[in-house]
Amino acid sequence: MKERELREKLINRWRELRRERDPYMQQWRNISKFLRPANGKFLSPKNQNEAKDKWNSIYDNTPLKASDVLAKGLMSGMTDPSQQWFYLTTGSPDLDESVEVRRWLSEVSQILYMSFARTNLYQSLHHAWMEAGLFGVLAIIIEEDDQLGFICSPLTVGEYCIACNARGIPDTLYREFSMTTCQLIDEFGIDVLPSSLAAVAKAGKLDEQQVVLHAIEPRKDRDPRFKDNKNMPWRSVYVLKDYNDSAHPILRESGYRTFPAVVGRWGAISNETYSSESPGMIALGDVMQLQHEQKQKGNAIDYMVKPPIGLPTEAKDSDIDTDPGGVSFVNGAIGRKPVEQLWNVNINLGELRQDIGEVQQRIKAAFNVDMFLMLNNQSAINQMTATAVAELHEEKLLMLGPVLSRFNNEVLKPLIDRTFDILNEQGMIPPAPEEIQGTDLNIEYTSILSRSQKEIQSRTDQQAIQEALQIAQVQPDFLDNFDLDKYAQIVSDKRGVSPEILRSSDEVAAIRQQRAQQQQQAQQQQQMAQSADMLSKLGKVPAGSETMAGQAVQGMQDMAAEGMA
Predict the structure, then answer these.
(1) Could you give phi then psi for residue 445, rounded to 5 degrees?
(2) Is residue 512 part of a domain?
(3) Which of 71, 134, 343, 349 has fewest C-beta within 10 Å?
(4) How many domains does the chain have?
């Protein structure tokens, strides 16, 4: 496809994607205006600094704190940098029990963790969880980096559009942003700039903002036999929106082996591209009411403390002291007070504060503040087990379950897959054991939220085993109905026990065989000791098989000989 034709196609699709996004924009603007003005970009990329008064609609910071608790709760509950929140498996119990495979999986997991800590991934994830809680959608672009391995670019609503494939999975992202002329030269080189812009740059005007469109989408017209940039599964194209230069219609065309954008949604349904539900959307009405009530409460206090007053017309040019305790001399009209209050505002502030408090509680409930604060406190003071968390907040965890499952599939798995692909291409992943060559890896999540949900699921099994142990005290063979080895594996998995410390079934079988042999030897030694003792006592018994005593002695000697053998 020619460059001019490609540019025109991308610009047209950008318009179509914006039309699909438009129904959500007003709601996103209101969430940004009344709840968290720092998030969201809704102005022209060239004029982002014009929104200097965007914090002027915030009179109560309860929604800001609630959204912050949600973001930090998802961060510590799903992707805590200080804890192991996932491990890799082959999905096959037989392969996972191989010592060599387990060592390789553990080593790869540690490489990923160290790469995450070295880059800006965790900062980007915190921003992404905030975006998802507010607007119901998040996006992070993960690019290769020569120094760090990879680098993340967290996006905010208003600056990008997405599209999904036939299965409803996001596979396209278009982003509009601004770069200075100097930045364009550093990134793409001056030779690919339109001639008019290059002339301006050569004249020394390097700080003017230029609007750039970055399009990432599946590449339909490619030859899979080639691995170059223009034949990779995903296409990446940069164009200048305001310059349609015939010589240089695009800035750069390249490609990706995997979709480089991690896109997650709070609760998209049916064939929706964006989420129609999020805590920010649910709480928006209460947030607007809260900001309005707080503003009106301030106005009411002002009216009560310093109400508007009426003065006679002859006092127009007089100096009136309206401060508390002030004294002024005014000639009043006949039959009228010299100074009088025009109207009396007498609002019940107690009832207003009570209503404000109820609104604040509804906002906190929408953001699951109580649950996440409890989880954070548990993580900090380490006084509650995951079982206790599940018991106290089982209902809320179950309600949050579909969202967490969606985040696992749409955010965490693509993130790990993308970073693994980058590090593997850079040679940072050691070769896999021969027995799992070509095997797709599975991801097991071990964060506190995942463990809490698994604890809820396994509680029935735990109760059944406890009851079985009680019954076994009366009827020991009742335990024959249960496979306690499988129960140990299930409980370890649901509690997030590191697989490195668990023995394989072969190792367990070997230990049990050795223990059985030791027990057998101990029994034989005990029999030999008893035989020797009895022989010493029967030492004076006549030998030979003619008597019963002689036959008994001969039998014990035979047993002792077998034990020695």
Answers:
(1) -95, 135
(2) yes
(3) 343
(4) 1
